[in-house]
Write a structure and sequence with these properties.
Elements: E1 21-22, E2 44-48, E3 54-58, H1 67-70, H2 76-129, E4 146-148, E5 151-153
Antiparallel strand pairs: 1-2, 2-3, 4-5
Length: 154
Amino acid sequence: MYPEPARPVPAERAVTAYRPVPIPPAVVHPAPAVPVQPGTVPAVASVVLPDGRVVTGYAINPAQPDPAATKSAVSRTAVNVALGGVGFLAVCGGLLLLTSFIAALTAFITQLIILAAVIFGGWIAVQLFGASDHQGGTTVNIRKAVIKRNHFHG
């Protein structure tokens, strides 16, 4: 029903580190002589492993960087300053376009409001001062009237 308890692993394991041991120069058999130009073939190195095997190979020199690639003609700071200036000019141009667009939009909305006011004002003027062919409302004939005790007697 319950799982079995885990048994501890014995800590008696020995850790062995193997380090290669170079062969002394007296033991190394020289490589066969091959006629080559001096300096074109790197030196051969041999290493004895702990199990007795011999590994022979060429020593690899670290790659040297190309001298022309390490030194640029323009300093990195100058490039950063130039790029910052270009970015600043692009932002300024964008802001100038944005403010111009906002000004044009404001002028357009103002013209629409003025046009609406002129049209509505003209309609009101026609209603007030236009020719009235018909009689509208109630006609009241004014004559002498008597007001007694706050009552109108016409």
